[in-house]
Structure formats: structure tokens, C-alpha cells
């Protein structure tokens, strides 16, 4: 078990004075299997009241509006979370049994449809089908698909944007965690395995000393259903463990973007982001 303090600062520098902005943020984790939120707080500057709710996918959302003129918007999300290793039990459902199980709940069916971001190219679909043909079970196939995608895409910061699709990332064979996760999701859905996008944080230093603060960043990984939901980090080729903190889940990045909104004012803005992670136990 690890206790992690996460400080995530983000916002916009506007190219001029904005008269009003309307925003929503998904930056605070919730207590769930494998993690317990001990403390969380969101500070908004300029000061604004905000409405907090849990969205359809189970993610904490804070929505707010700023109706006074401002040239900068800054959010600081601070969380203290206890995280432990997740259980990864084996599920030996056969393909027919999995198909029957999927039909029992909307949450599984909803994670089978492709989105513009996850729709895979034909080469990826064929790759997934070839793995399925050799695998002993859906769970075995899902893990091999995620590993193969992670092995074939080079992680290169700045090589893509939040608007890059799975097909575009595959074409250049480069991307970041968002792209690798979208590709894994698209490949899994293409062979009938429900898969969903998970956003959160990964402590980048496995052997960090207690009290040590390191520079982190937002992270993404995949969960698939093969009798139960199982998480896997295809970017780092590791199971989800006590360094992963979950913030949100959805069909793709669009459902869990940390900050988005609209504003009235001059065209142009610059996003800024910093993440600090401290191991406290």
C-alpha cells in the first residue's frame, strides 16, 4: 500500500481579457476498488463557486462559471489517496459465455461501440483477430492484444495532440499514453471485448522515498471486461498497481478530459499543466 499526495495545476492564459468563461473539470479521484481518497480539494482562480456531481461514468465533475473579466484561469486539484495493489483473478470464460454475459448489462454493451478516437485501422483489426485465433480465452486474448499494441507504438511526448485518433497514431507508430490506450480499446472492441478508457495518474518512480516529491503527469490506461473488469497499462506494459490513481472512466479521452470549457473574449489561449506526486507512506 502507498499513500500518494497529488497536486495537479492546470488552466489557461488568454490572449486578452475574457469577459466570461464556462468550464467543467475532472481532476479529483473517487474512492473505489484499490484506492481510498483521504482528502481532496479544488481551488479555482479567479474565485468561483462550483457545483460538484458524479457523471454517468462514475467520475467526479466540478462545473463552474466565471462572469467577471479575467485574463487567466487557474485550477489546483490536491488529493491524498491510499492505493494498494489490485487483485487480478483469472477468468476462464469462453467466447460464447462472454457474449452472453455482455448482454446482461448496459455497462458492457456501451463499451463495445467504437468512437472517432478509438476506431482502429484494418491492420489493427486483423492483428487483434490473429491473436484471438491463437488465444485460449477472451482474457488471454485481451492481455496479448494490449501488450502487442504497447510494443508496436513508440512513446514520444509531443508527437500527438488530444485530437489525434487511433488510426493516425498507428500510421506514425508514435504517440503518448492516450493514443496507445485508444488503440488498445479499439482493437479489443473490434473482437467483441468491452473496453473502456481510464484516466488518472501514475507515480513514475517505483522506488521513491517517503516524503520525496517528483514531477508527474496525467496518465491513461485501459480496462476490459472478460468476466470481470481488468485494468492494464499498455504504455508501460504493466498491471495496474499501487502506483496508479484512478480519476475517471469513459468511452475515450473525450469523456474524461481534465478541463474543458468555452469563453467569451479574444481568440487564443495557452494551456498550462504541472503535476507533482509525493509519496507520504
Describe this protein's structure.
By secondary structure, this protein is an alpha+beta fold. The chain has 2 domains: 2-84 and 257-279, Immunoglobulin-like; 95-255, C8orf32 fold (Roll), CATH 3.10.620. Helix content is 22%, strand content 41%. The protein is built from 6 helices and 16 strands. It has helices spanning 95-102, 106-109, 122-134, 138-152, 166-172, 177-190, and strands spanning 2-18, 20-25, 35-45, 50-54, 60-66, 70-83, 154-155, 174-175, 195-202, 213-216, 218-225, 229-233, 238-239, 244-250, 259-264, 269-279. The strands form 4 sheets. Strands 3-6-1-16-10 form a 5-stranded antiparallel beta sheet, with no helix packed on it. Strands 13-12-11-9-14 form a 5-stranded antiparallel beta sheet. A hairpin with a 3-residue loop joins strand 11 (218-225) and strand 12 (229-233). The longest helix is centred in the middle third of the chain and has 15 residues, at 138-152. It is globular and about 60 Å long. The mean pLDDT is 95.
Task: Describe the secondary structure blueprint for this structure.
Blueprint: E1 2-18, E2 20-25, E3 35-45, E4 50-54, E5 60-66, E6 70-83, H1 95-102, H2 106-109, H3 122-134, H4 138-152, E7 154-155, H5 166-172, E8 174-175, H6 177-190, E9 195-202, E10 213-216, E11 218-225, E12 229-233, E13 238-239, E14 244-250, E15 259-264, E16 269-279
Parallel strand pairs: 7-8
Antiparallel strand pairs: 1-6, 1-16, 2-5, 2-15, 3-6, 4-5, 9-11, 9-14, 10-16, 11-12, 12-13
Amino acid at each position: 500500500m502507498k499513500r500518494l499526495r497529488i497536486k495537479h495545476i492546470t488552466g489557461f492564459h488568454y490572449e486578452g481579457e475574457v469577459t466570461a468563461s464556462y468550464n467543467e473539470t475532472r481532476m479529483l479521484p473517487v474512492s473505489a476498488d484499490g484506492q481510498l481518497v483521504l482528502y481532496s480539494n479544488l481551488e479555482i482562480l479567479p474565485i468561483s463557486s462550483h457545483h460538484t456531481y458524479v457523471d454517468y461514468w462514475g467520475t467526479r465533475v466540478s462545473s463552474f462559471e466565471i462572469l467577471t473579466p479575467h485574463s487567466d484561469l487557474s485550477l489546483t486539484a490536491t488529493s491524498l489517496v491510499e492505493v494498494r495493489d489490485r487483485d487480478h483473478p483469472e477468468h476462464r470464460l469462453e467466447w460464447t459465455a462472454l457474449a452472453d454475459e455482455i448482454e446482461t448489462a448496459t455497462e458492457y454493451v456501451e463499451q463495445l461501440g467504437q468512437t472517432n478516437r478509438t476506431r482502429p485501422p484494418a491492420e489493427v483489426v486483423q492483428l487483434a483477430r490473429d491473436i484471438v485465433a491463437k488465444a485460449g480465452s477472451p482474457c488471454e486474448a485481451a492481455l496479448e492484444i494490449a501488450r502487442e499494441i504497447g510494443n508496436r507504438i513508440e512513446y514520444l511526448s509531443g508527437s500527438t495532440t488530444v485530437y489525434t485518433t487511433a488510426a493516425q497514431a498507428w500510421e506514425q507508430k508514435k504517440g503518448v499514453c492516450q493514443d496507445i490506450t485508444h488503440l488498445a480499446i479499439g482493437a479489443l472492441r473490434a473482437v467483441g471485448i468491452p473496453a473502456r478508457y481510464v484516466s488518472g495518474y501514475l507515480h513514475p518512480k517505483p522506488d521513491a522515498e517517503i516524503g520525496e516529491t517528483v514531477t508527474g503527469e496525467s496518465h491513461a490506461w485501459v480496462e476490459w471486461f472478460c468476466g470481470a473488469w481488468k485494468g492494464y497499462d499498455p504504455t508501460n506494459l504493466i498491471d495496474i498497481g499501487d502506483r496508479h490513481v484512478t480519476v475517471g472512466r469513459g468511452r475515450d479521452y473525450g469523456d474524461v478530459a481534465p478541463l474543458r470549457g468555452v469563453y467569451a473574449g479574444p481568440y487564443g489561449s495557452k494551456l498550462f499543466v504541472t503535476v507533482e506526486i509525493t509519496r507520504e507512506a
